[in-house]
Design brief:
Pfam families: G-alpha. Keywords: GTP-binding, Lipoprotein, Magnesium, Metal-binding, Myristate, Nucleotide-binding, Palmitate, Transducer. The chain is built from 13 helices and 4 strands. It is of the alpha/beta class. The chain folds into 3 domains: about 100 residues, no CATH class; about 70 residues, P-loop containing nucleotide triphosphate hydrolases (Rossmann fold, 3-Layer(aba) Sandwich); about 100 residues, GI Alpha 1, domain 2-like, CATH 1.10.400. A hairpin with a 2-residue loop joins strand 2 and strand 3. It is elongated. The structure holds guanosine-5'-triphosphate and magnesium ion.
Length: about 300
C-alpha cells in the first residue's frame, strides 16, 4: 500500500527518528541523566547508534557552556539560566494571579458637577451594602444639618435681594437678627439648634415672599435640601433630635478630594470613587482613571 511505502521514505530522510534513545528517568536537570551522570558530553551509546544517517551531531561542544563547574559538577552558567527560568515562571504565575484577581475588581468612578448627587449615591450604597449608619454616625451629622439650615436661610435672603423682592418690615427684623447670628457663627460641634434662632428661622421660612424665592431656584441659588430641612424644622430643633437616615441622605457637604468605599457583592469586589465636582476639584479626577471598569456620569 502506498501509505506503507511512505514510511520507508521517511526512514531515508530522517533516520534519526528511528534511533531508540533511552528515556531517562524524570529529571529536571537536562545536564544530568537521572543517574547522577553529567551530560556535558553525550552518553556513548547515542553517538554509537548513529550510523550512516545525515549529519546528526551530538558533539561534546554542543553541550559545552563556558563558566566552569561548581563543586557538584554542574555548570554554573546552566544553574544561572535555570534560576532565571524559575524566577521568570514565578513572575508569570504572579502576573496571572494578579490578573485573575483584578478581573474580579470593579472600579467605578462617579463623575459630575457639584451637587449632582455623587456623594448621595455613595451614602445609598453604604446603606444597602455596608450596614448603613450607626447611631454614632447619625449623631455626628447634627452640626452639618444645622449648617445646611443656616445656609439655606442666607441663600433665600440673598435670593430675595437679587430678585428685587420687597420684604415686609417685621420679616426684615427677623432677617437682621438672623444675619447678626450668622456673621458670628462658626461651623463646629454644635449639637443643639440655638433656641433663640428657632422661631426666627421658622418665621422667615413661613413668609410667602421667601417661598417665592425658593420657587425661583432656576434664577437664584438655593441648595436642594433647603425645603426638606426647613419643613422638618420642628423635629430638628427638638432637644431629643437624632438625625434619621433620610436626614443624612439630604444633608449636603461639598466633597473635597476623593473618597472611596469598598464592598463585596457575590464574588466581585466593588471600589467606588466619589470626587469633588467643583471646578477647582476636577484636576484630581485624572489620577483615578487607571484600570477603571466603569464611569457613572451625572
Ligand atoms: N430633591 C432631592 N434632593 C436630594 C435627594 N437626595 C439628596 N438630595 C440633595 O441632592 C444634593 C446632592 O448633593 P451631593 O450628593 O453632596 O452632590 P455631589 O455631587 O457629591 O457634590 P460635590 O461633592 O460638591 O461634587 C444635596 O443637596 C441633597 O440634599 C432627593 O431624594 N431629592
Ligand atoms: Mg460630593
Amino acid at each position: 500500500m502506498g501509505n506503507c511505502e511512505s514510511s520507508t521514505h521517511d526512514k531515508q530522510i530522517h533516520p534519526a527518528k528511528d534511533i531508540a534513545l533511552p528515556v531517562p528517568p524524570h529529571n529536571n536537570n537536562p545536564y544530568e541523566n537521572g543517574n547522577g551522570d553529567s551530560l556535558q558530553s553525550p552518553p556513548p551509546h547515542i553517538s554509537d547508534s548513529i550510523k550512516g544517517g545525515p549529519t546528526f551531531s551530538l558533539e561534546p561542544s554542543a553541550f559545552s557552556i563556558s563558566g566552569g563547574t561548581n563543586p557538584s559538577g554542574l555548570n554554573n552558567d546552566w544553574l544561572n539560566v535555570k534560576d532565571a527560568l524559575n524566577r521568570n515562571r514565578q513572575i508569570e504565575e504572579q502576573i496571572m494571579k494578579d490578573h485573575r484577581k483584578l478581573e474580579k475588581v470593579i472600579k467605578l468612578l462617579l463623575l459630575g458637577p457639584a451637587e449632582s448627587g455623587k456623594s448621595t449615591i455613595l451614602k445609598q450604597i453604604k446603606i444597602i451594602h455596608l450596614h448603613g449608619f450607626s447611631m454614632a454616625d447619625l449623631g455626628e451629622k447634627k452640626p452639618l444639618i444645622f449648617r445646611n439650615i443656616y445656609e439655606s436661610i442666607i441663600q433665600l435672603i440673598k435670593g430675595a435681594h437679587s430678585l428685587g423682592f420687597e420684604l415686609p418690615a417685621n420679616l426684615q427684623t427677623d432677617i437682621d437678627t438672623f444675619c447678626l447670628f450668622f456673621n458670628d457663627y462658626q461651623f463646629g460641634d454644635q449639637m443643639e439648634f440655638p433656641k433663640t434662632m428657632y422661631p426666627v428661622v421658622k418665621r422667615i421660612w413661613a413668609n410667602e415672599r421667601i417661598k417665592e424665592v425658593y420657587a425661583q431656584r432656576s434664577d437664584v441659588y438655593v441648595m436642594d435640601c433647603a425645603k426638606y430641612f426647613l419643613e422638618n424644622l420642628d423635629r430638628i430643633c427638638s432637644e431629643s433630635y437624632i438625625p434619621t437616615t433620610s436626614d443624612v441622605l439630604y444633608s449636603r457637604q461639598q466633597t473635597v478630594g476623593v473618597s472611596e468605599i469598598r464592598y463585596n457583592y457575590k464574588d466581585l469586589e466593588f471600589r467606588i470613587f466619589d470626587v469633588g465636582g467643583q471646578k477647582n476639584q476636577r484636576r484630581k479626577w485624572i489620577h483615578l482613571f487607571d484600570n477603571v471598569t466603569s464611569i457613572v456620569s451625572f
